[in-house]
Design a protein that fits this description.
There is one protein chain. It contains 6 helices and 5 strands; from the N terminus they run H-H-H-H-H-H-E-E-E-E-E. Strands 1, 2, 3, 4 and 5 form a 5-stranded antiparallel β-sheet that branches. Helix 2 packs antiparallel against helix 3 (about 40-55). The longest helix is centred in the first third of the chain and has 18 residues, at about 40-55. The protein has helices at about 5-15, 20-35, 40-55, 80-95, 100-105, 110-120; strands spanning about 125-130, 140, 150-160, 160-175, 180-185. The chain is an alpha+beta fold and about 190 residues long. Helices cover about 40% and strands about 20% of the residues.
Length: about 190
C-alpha cells in the first residue's frame, strides 16, 4: 500500500485505533478520513451514514463486539442456476461500472450519472462479485399480481471484506427456460 496516497494515509491512521466494538470501528474510520484530509462535512456525512446503517438499519448497539468473518447462515436453498446467472450478470455490470448497460437494464429510468454517483460516491469500497452462497431463494419474491408475473429481487452487493452498504433491487422475468433481470434501483 502506498502510504503517501489519500487511501494509504487513511488506512495507516485507521489501523492505529481500536476496533473491538462497532462504536470504536466507526470512530477509527472517521479518524482515518480526517487523516486523509477529507473535509469535516464529508466526515459528518460518513458518520451519519454509518450510524444510520449499523444502528438504524441493522439495529446493532454501539457496544456490539466485532469479530472476524462469520459463516453465512443456512438458508432455504440456493437459487436455480438460470436465475442466479441473470442476477450475477446485473451484479457484474455494477462491479464493472458499466453504467450505460445498467441504464438499459433499468429501461432507461435511471440516469448514468445517478448510477455512477450511487456506486462510486456512496460506496467508497471497491465492489466484487459475491460468493455463490448469497444467491439464495430469500433474495427473491414471487409476484402475487397476475398482471406482472415474475419475481422481485433484493440483493446485497459485496466488497472484499463482506456485504457492502449498497444493494440492488429489480425484477426477474421468465421466458421459457431463460430469465431476464431488470434493475429498479441501487440503494444503501
Amino acid at each position: 500500500m502506498a502510504r503517501d496516497t489519500e487511501h494509504g494515509r487513511a488506512m495507516t491512521a485507521q489501523l492505529t485505533r481500536r476496533h473491538g466494538t462497532l462504536e470504536e470501528a466507526i470512530e477509527a474510520g472517521i479518524f482515518a478520513l480526517s487523516a486523509a484530509g477529507l473535509p469535516k462535512g464529508i466526515r459528518r456525512q460518513a458518520r451519519a451514514a454509518c450510524e444510520d446503517f449499523f444502528y438504524g438499519r441493522l439495529s446493532l448497539p454501539a457496544s456490539y463486539e466485532l469479530g472476524g468473518p462469520e459463516e453465512m447462515p443456512e438458508g432455504l436453498e440456493l437459487m436455480p442456476d438460470p436465475m442466479y446467472r441473470a442476477l450475477e450478470d446485473v451484479v457484474e455490470l455494477v462491479v464493472d461500472g458499466d453504467y450505460e448497460e445498467l441504464r438499459a437494464l433499468s429501461r432507461d429510468r435511471l440516469e448514468v450519472e445517478d448510477l455512477r454517483r450511487r456506486v462510486e460516491d456512496d460506496c467508497p469500497e471497491s465492489l466484487v462479485l459475491p460468493p455463490r452462497e448469497i444467491y439464495r431463494i430469500e433474495a427473491i419474491t414471487k409476484s402475487d399480481d397476475a398482471d406482472t408475473p415474475g419475481w422481485a429481487y433484493f440483493l446485497e452487493l459485496w466488497t472484499e471484506t463482506g456485504p457492502a452498504r449498497l444493494h440492488i433491487e429489480g425484477e426477474i422475468e421468465e421466458s421459457g427456460e431463460r430469465f431476464t433481470a431488470t434493475l429498479s434501483d441501487i440503494l444503501p
